[in-house]
Backbone:
């Protein structure tokens, strides 16, 4: 195991960062970020905050009023809703309509940005799975899925097929993406993978052991890479069954690990 320096004491000068989700038991940001902060000698701490959807705006507004809270990380299912609570939005947020971080600005306003897509593609290429020129399937067009879709297109996938059980959300995202990458996006009526090089689960299916598969595996080509963005459990049912069929697999944790430097830069954690 890697030895980490002891966490500095939390004092009256400690800066706070919240991770918003429902649930939050699976979040990895505190586990990954807090040792980095300790190693850098930064007087800050990342803590999980369990916020139900019906309480989200009240929770966000309350957190924004905490003067020693500098930012928020956002996970399932709040990424679309929280983007609407920001004063300003980055380019990625404008394209995909979702955010996974909020930062307090010098004037007191809040900026929303989304690094999910960048993190996924960086993790994918770092593991040797080059998306450029690939035909990809992505199931789940919510907060993280929408960002991953845009990042895959920006990284040069030749064709991207999308599916979501929420047809309105699916259609809206496909339209926004097609405006930037015409002729390369297709909305599907069902999660049926066929002639694809990369199949991505961007739904929450896999968080629980009894969850069904997000898409069937039997029609995937043998050399297809199967990727999951679920981080806990590390080995989801999808990845276990894909590996058993001989597919190369890609774990969800890579997406977050690849975002750490982006978070440090965005929040100016030096």
Residues:
């Amino acid at each position: 195991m890697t030895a980490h320096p002891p966490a500095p004491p939390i004092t009256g000068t400690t800066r706070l960062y919240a991770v918003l989700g429902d649930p939050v038991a699976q979040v990895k940001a505190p586990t990954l970020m807090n040792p980095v902060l300790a190693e850098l000698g930064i007087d800050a701490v990342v803590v999980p905050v369990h916020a139900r959807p019906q309480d989200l705006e009240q929770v966000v507004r309350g957190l924004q009023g905490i003067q020693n809270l500098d930012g928020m990380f956002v996970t399932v299912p709040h990424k679309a809703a929280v983007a609407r609570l920001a004063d300003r939005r980055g380019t990625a947020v404008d394209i995909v309509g979702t955010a996974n971080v909020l930062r307090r600005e010098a004037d007191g306003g809040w900026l929303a940005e989304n690094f999910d897509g960048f993190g996924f593609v960086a993790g994918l290429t770092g593991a040797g799975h080059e998306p450029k020129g690939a035909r990809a399937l992505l199931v789940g067009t919510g907060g993280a899925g929408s960002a991953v879709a845009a990042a895959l297109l920006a990284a040069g996938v030749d064709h991207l097929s999308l599916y979501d059980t929420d047809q309105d959300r699916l259609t809206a995202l496909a339209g926004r993406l097609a405006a930037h990458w015409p002729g390369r996006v297709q909305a599907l009526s069902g999660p049926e993978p066929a002639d694809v090089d990369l199949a991505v689960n961007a739904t929450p299916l896999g968080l629980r052991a009894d969850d069904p598969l997000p898409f069937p595996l039997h029609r995937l080509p043998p050399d297809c890479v199967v990727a999951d963005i679920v981080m806990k459990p590390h080995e989801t049912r999808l990845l276990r069954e894909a590996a058993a069929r001989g597919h190369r697999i890609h774990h969800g944790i890579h997406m977050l690990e690849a975002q750490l430097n982006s978070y440090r830069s965005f929040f100016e954690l030096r």
Remarks:
- The chain has two domains: 15-114, 117-255.
